[in-house]
Amino acid sequence: MKSKYQYIFLAIGAFFILNSCNKEPGEDIIPPPETGQIRLQFNHFVDSKPLIIDSMMYMNAAGNPYEINEVMYFISDVILHQSNGSEKKIGDWKDIHYVELDIPSTLTWEVYDDIPAGNYDSITFIFGIPEEKNISFMYVNPPEDKMMWPDILGGGYHYMMINGKWLDENTEEQIYNFHLGIGQLYKGDVINYDSIYAFVQNYFTVGLPDSDFMLEPGETKEIEIIMNIESWFQTPHDFDFNEWGGAIMEIQPAMRIGVENGFDVFTTGYIR
Amino acid sequence: MSKFFLLTVFMFVGLMQYSQAQMELEDTILLEPITISDKMIKRVSYIATNYIDRAELQSTSIRDVGEFLRRIPNVSGIRRGGSAIDPVVRGYKYSQLNVIMNNGIKIEGGCPNRMDPVSSHIEAEDIENIEIIKGPFSMKYGPSFGGLINLVSAFPKPYEKFEIHTNAMLGMESNWNGKKIHGSVFGGNRTVFFHVAGGYRNYGNYESGSREGIDTVYSSAFLKYNHTAKFGLSFSKKHKIILSWDGVHGRDVMFPALPMDEKSDDTHIYSFDYQAERLGPFIRSLEVKLYRSDVYHVMDNSHRASFSTMQMTTDVDAVNTGGRTAINIQIGNHGLQTGIDHENIQKDGKRVGYMSMMGTTSKNTKNLWLDALIRNTGFFAEYKTLFASYEIYGGLRMDYNQATSGDTLEIIENGVEYFNETGSEYFNLSASFGITKSINPWLEISLGLGRGTRSPNMLERYIKLLAVGYDKYDYLGNPQLKPETNNEIDLTLQISKERTGDVYMNFFYSFVQDYINANLLPSSVITPQTPGAPGVKQFYNAGYITSKGFEFGYKSPDRHKLGGDLVAAYTYAVIPAVKKYITNGTEVVDDVEIRNDALPEIPPFEATMNIYYRLFKGNLVPRLTVRAVARQDHVSEAFYEPSTPGFCILNFSANFKINRLTEINAGVTNLFDRNYYEHLNRRIIGTNENLYEPGRVFFATLYVNL
Predict the structure, then answer these.
(1) Which residue among A22, B250, B300, B614 is least packed, with the fewest CB closer than 10 Å?
(2) Mean local confidence (pLDDT), A52-74
(3) Residues 6+ apart with CB under 8 A from B374
(4) Residue closest to B533 by CA, chosen among B587, B473, B588
(5) Would you call B355 and A19 a contact, using CB atoms and an 8 Å cutoff?
(6) Which residues of A touch B363 (CB under 8 A)?
(7) Quick one: fold of B2-705?
(8) What is the pTM of this model?
(9) Domain, as residue range, for A90
(10) B358 in contact with chain A, both atoms CB, cutoff 8 A
(11) What are the domain boundaries of chain B?
(12) What CA–CA distance (Å, rounded) separates B484 from B575?
């Protein structure tokens, strides 16, 4: 009888010995960081003051009274340029950021990338999405999915939507959709899907003025990027809603005005 | 909770002993001519094996094979809808389990979301028996990593003179207004014999148990029908061939926990079997099997809210062709089964999405698999001998695995190849050894050592952007995944006493190398394609994990009127290091390494107790089942896996043999209409709401055997 119980205890003992073999995790020695983080904060101004939506209180350079209801746009390929000529392209986790006025979480981009500490001269980014990345159906979830640009107009996604109203020559309220995206070239003078013969990539690179900063190891630097909305409608071209109408996504010359006006739309706010 | 279970165990065993002693004193007519066999805790050789025969399958109401398998200790299931529950054995799932039909037929499920696991391609009424071998010990039916589930359907057999028989089944269930019907005709003579059968089942949406007086109705309806035809030819007593054709079809099968529902699933399985017996003094038998299983699966989101903005349809064609040949040799006490097997898996599938805007429709077509092919050829040998009071077993398996794909997808970012070269080939070695010692006539102790290696499957290698995992993420295959290997040790004690019954205890410890896990990919590399998926994960080899646990069973002697059984099981699995992504909403902002994190989807401790009483010479057997499941708090932090509360449910059923030909099985499950969900149940898609189990269900099934 004794031997029977010996076998049982031996077996159970073996099981628990096997289970006790878990190695205790050792303490890792964490070296001091040589990198920092950045956070991009997006704010929106009109005429040097914070944007007030849903109020017919603005006047553009062409003399159109207008209001702004919605602002949505993409920026991509943010590059931090160092004094020594090297650069850090943001993209370890994501390289395209979506901003929507009505969604506060999109107004802050907590950049995942570890940024090498050091002096940075400037920041550049692409307004919109570059051609090789602007692929239809790459966003299937809200909120980005609503930015889809019809395949027949070039596909991919809108670079920007500014939606609002303006008062026309008869002071009647009209709806405008100031949308930028891939442009189309049409045969003849008629805008017709069947007469599209080429597409135009309208995204452009923005050099953010006064965006130099120094990043200490372990530091998180917050950089405010301001979109000055009135600039979309002026310098070098005055954009007249009465001339172009409320919908421009099928009118490449109108989008071209927006693109050429876009060089000074973004400015740097605080860096702290 | 654990104290409650221990108390339950002791009370139950004590109650059985007391009641049986009382009955023996008071009632001297103890031996009944009819024996009801309950094999929930049977052990074969040194490995933990469960064997369920037809009688046991008929003793309960089965709407789905996977659901039935959850009754077996340490076998769980992943519920995504009303049917097609995906089996999990000791925490191992999907291709970690070798699920086969009829001793060697393999089926490649069509659905990447596993709407159609292998067990859904065979109807319960067609099953003759089910064998489950836990651990990497079986060598003869293909690579076995975490276990083998062998679903064996009814096969025709020769008769001395011509006979013909029929079986019929009619069943109904309340709650989801389930109706099922099945019939079979079989017979033949010594030369020609046959078995033909067909079935139909139609279930509506089920209601969960009552939660503060409110039931939740889930979109879980399904319609399935099947047919089978098998013909045998015996041209001598030693040789026979059997040709068979099975068809299983699903229509409008709803899965509230998946992004799409099954529109249709059409499966056809063809097989040829040749069996020869006693071919020489040492050759006991020779088996040859050839088969082809073809699954065509279509799913869409037409029943979902997302359909209004984006219409999605997916269709997949999966074909598995293969065979095996084995020879059984017996020389004295030495038994050897050896042979070769081969399978050839081909898979093609595409997803089409439509999105409307400005009066135009954009169409997006992407392949999920494109001419994907996996070939696996194996050699196996299983040896068994008796030596004094020892039973010794050894097994060996060698596999050559090769995979290719017609994919043109190429994802290379910053010098990292995420998806590029699609070809791969592996040589895998699996082996097992076991020894059983009979200490005395009532006590046996067994030790098993096993190593099972499996190559990555079609999904892990080549899937492109579907939410196929535990979480909401889209998944991307990894063509360069390495095989994963389970090294396992099992220790088993078996006590069998005529007066007190059988006690069975199994302890296991697994050390898994090159564990296949999934890691989140940056959105700068790839974005999801499934509405609701917050990102994309890709399969990778995550180093090692460990898993341990036990199974316990007690079964009362068959000779008493009052009897029952008690089973309990637990698995505890840990991954030593895993990355957890810190998110802000859906945005990843940081990551942190978690040490000794729990593996996700590991079922909690549970115990099930059955008590029955045989009335009218065993013609009426009422049965009470109590199932208690502990809270699962050992959950994966890296996967943001939530805890699951424990629950206890009560079922009652009765088997009544009306006469020699007719039997009825009726009862109620979840008697108190408890509102509960299993830890492995998936959550409702697009929400954090759990998919609850059905509430109270009354059922009745009539069997007629002519």
Answers:
(1) A22
(2) 96
(3) B343, B344, B345, B401, B402, B403, B455, B457, B458, B461
(4) B473
(5) no
(6) 151
(7) Maltoporin; Chain A (2.40.170)
(8) 0.83
(9) 54-271
(10) yes
(11) 2-705
(12) 14
